[in-house]
Amino acid sequence: MVKFIKHQIIPGFYADYCNKKVSEIYHKQEKAQIDISEIKEEKDEYILKLKTEIEKQIERKIKLEDKAKSLLFIITLAITIITFSLSYIKENTHHILPIIFIVLSIIHFVISGIRALQTLNIKEFNIHQTIIEFQENKFVIKKEKKPSLLLRELIKSKSLNDLINIKISNFTFASFILIRNGLIFFVLFFISTINMSFRNNKVENKPKTEIVIESKFKVKDTIKESELNQIKETEKK
Prior knowledge:
Strand order of the largest sheet: 1-2
Number of helices: 5
Strand content: under 5%
Helix content: over 70%
Order of helices and strands: HHHHEEH
């Protein structure tokens, strides 16, 4: 139950909490030492593997950022639609339930937008590039580091990149769930407004039906009075 509440009801706050923990781990790993004593002859093989894995990490990061951009578009569209519904609140301030639903919907969309923007704001990423310098009107490619140094660097980069992608994934997931919850509250707002307007129409139509019934009774009463008068006249004769 607690897990459901964290992931489905308050995902925005929970994602922020989790990412703070991930940041703490990131800073610890950033300063950590790397032991490659077990790897002796296969250094080049491991270097090639790690370079391939880092490229995959970059691709994953780009995909997550594209998802965040798509979510931002949905949020913008949803908030635009909601603004047209605000006129209902101005005209019906006494309808408390629909107002609660629309306010909750707006809050969820706003927090979702914040989490999606936080996803795009994570710029840090560890990549390996060839060092090129410009010297005396020409470009000079610097020699690669020693295999042992390069391997240590790639191991750290790969581990830190995993943590960065976890942070991005947490914010993206939270943004998606918040959009879903915002849409649910907007649908509830829409249903409650229809229900309220239906009830109001029913109340307005009630007096009209009563007036018709009263008029029918009046007609019947007049008929009875005329019949009584006729009976009295016949009796007198």
